[in-house]
Design a protein that fits this description.
3-stranded antiparallel beta sheet, 18 strands, alpha+beta, single chain
Length: 543
């Protein structure tokens, strides 16, 4: 393609991207406002939306939703997902163990635990979270590696017409970048940046791009897909655009698609489904009305308390008392004509059921959201057995387990994409440690390990894996319950000590497994030495 034609193609790409972005943005303004409202409710700043008629009126906030979110978040953080890679055939068992170790290495190098904490917050407060899967050449000391990262829900736009993000026409990631950033990262395009395509007044409307943009431009990552009728597959491309200029286009390096898997590199996890949308609703959306009513009732109670603390004195003109004289509490004697014209007026108290109703609203939020006493670790007296505590907690945190299951399912989808990214982009040999029978073994990883040659011909076929997800860290009572079960099976003779230790959850487990293996090998060697003389004597007598 000639330079002029290429420039014209980039101009058309830029126009198409901005046109589609305006359409998406128009549909997302209400969504951005909802996300901002949810964040304010989580922070306890929901009085912001209520006009203040009296500057002295109390505006109490009992952070019941914030407490609820944090308790459910703590439950989910105990279920931080970890991928377990299983082979499709026994011949690929060694490769599966290496891939599992590679995935763990990637997540440790990129800090997935921090990303997971952000994902949980977005899911509970905003109603959905977004994970991005890609390849970072700077991970693992410059050897590169795939990653799974959190994407702020307020900085990504999916097709508003699609109920499945993978079926959408495009995906936009947006942010604000300074012109210095554009100049250092894209020096060839920086001199040609024009005024922002949306204009400052438009950006002030949506609430997400409200920052002062005098020295910043709107930076877009425009992801779109194209269908190849001959190959019967989609290819996904990405362009970076700012200031009416295409800064980078993935088709220049990879014209047949940025990823061979042909999917958008984003995984969405909705909490409560929304019909006709790929997004979701969260805890704040479900319980913000109860929170507002509870705080409004608190305001009523406080107003009543303030009024009751300032009793009024009613004085008629016929009483003969001077009101300013009566207001002076330092005097011991006041003169007037008649006490019948002086009356104290006190504010009547509110009905007692008001306080109980406020408490019932808050308890309802905790119970219905899954942040009840048992799930928060508060158990009644007399319950001490680990199995009983675990059973009650399992019964009480059904909602938290449901959310954890959704996060684990999305994590599994992201790990599947992560394996495909490693298969496509890994170029350097990496070393990982694999634990086999409690003993660490160093192995090498190369992308060539993920393909095999077909039985007939020279065709290379990808090796596929089964992916399951487990929690990295079991809760204290779940671990105690599992250890009790393993101990009972050991005492009944169903299992060997090594098998029981394998099922238990405790610190130093790998070291103990290694010691048990060494003891078993020593016992077998000692038994073999004792049996050898007997076998030799028997052989001599036979001769």
């Amino acid at each position: 393609m000639k330079a002029k034609e290429q420039t014209e193609a980039k101009r058309l790409l830029c126009e198409r991207a901005y046109g589609l972005f305006r359409e998406f943005r128009g549909a997302y303004i209400a969504e951005w406002q909802r996300l901002e409202r949810c964040e304010r409710m989580y922070r306890g700043d929901h009085w912001h939306d209520v006009p203040q008629t009296d500057k002295n009126e109390p505006r109490p906030v009992t952070p019941i939703i914030q407490s609820t979110v944090e308790n459910v978040k703590a439950e989910l953080m105990d279920r931080l997902p970890e991928a377990v890679i299983l082979p499709e055939s026994p011949a690929d068992a060694e490769v599966a163990r290496v891939i599992e170790a590679i995935i763990k290495q990637n997540h440790d190098a990129d800090g997935y635990a921090k990303e997971y904490r952000k994902l949980v917050h977005d899911l509970l407060v905003g109603g959905y979270c977004v994970q991005e899967v890609g390849y970072d050449n700077n991970l693992n000391g410059g050897l590169g590696g795939a990653f799974i990262r959190h994407v702020d829900a307020r900085s990504i736009l999916f097709d508003p017409l699609a109920t499945d993000a993978q079926e959408g026409r495009a995906v936009f990631k947006l942010s604000l970048k300074t012109r210095d950033y554009i100049g250092s990262h894209f020096p060839k395009a920086a001199p040609f940046l024009t005024a922002d395509a949306l204009g400052k007044p438009d950006a002030m409307e949506d609430g997400i791009l409200h920052a002062d943009r005098q020295d910043a431009v709107l930076f877009l990552e425009y992801w779109w897909r194209e269908y190849d009728a001959e190959q019967e597959r989609y290819s996904v491309h990405m362009a970076q655009i700012a200031g009416n200029q295409v800064l980078a286009d993935s088709r220049d390096a990879k014209p047949f698609g940025l990823f061979e898997h042909g999917l958008y590199p984003f995984v969405i996890t909705p909490m409560f489904m929304r019909k006709g949308s790929c997004l979701g609703l969260g805890i704040v959306d479900m319980f913000e009305t109860q929170q507002k009513y509870a705080d409004k009732l608190d305001q009523t109670v406080l107003k009543n308390a303030l009024m009751a603390s300032h009793n009024k004195l009613l004085v008629t003109e016929a009483s003969g008392f001077d009101t300013d004289d009566l207001r002076d509490w330092s005097k011991e004697v006041h003169s007037g004509e008649s006490l019948s014209g002086v009356t104290w007026f006190s504010t009547p108290p509110l009905p007692a059921y008001i306080i109980g109703y406020i408490q019932s609203i808050r308890e309802s939020i905790k119970q219905e959201s899954g942040a009840n006493d048992f799930s928060r670790g508060m158990v009644t007296g007399g319950v001490t057995a680990a199995s009983a505590i675990s059973a009650m907690q399992e019964m009480s945190n059904k909602r938290a387990r449901m959310v954890a299951r959704m996060l684990h399912e999305s994590f599994r989808d992201a790990v599947r994409l992560e394996i495909e990214v490693e298969r496509e982009f890994n170029f350097f040999t990496r070393r990982v440690n694999v634990t086999v029978n409690g003993e660490a073994k160093e192995c090498s990883f190369e992308s060539a390990m993920l393909v095999r040659r077909a039985a007939a011909g020279n065709t290379l076929l990808p090796i596929e894996f089964y992916i399951s997800v487990k929690a990295q860290q079991e809760t204290k009572y779940s671990a105690m319950s599992q250890n009790e079960l393993a101990l009972r099976m050991l005492q009944s003779g169903i299992m060997t000590p090594a098998q029981a230790v394998e099922l238990m959850v405790f610190e130093g487990k790998d070291q103990l497994l290694k010691q048990l293996k060494e003891q078993s090998e020593q016992a077998e060697a000692h038994a073999a030495q004792q049996n050898f003389p007997q076998q030799a004597g028997q052989t001599g007598r036979n001769v």
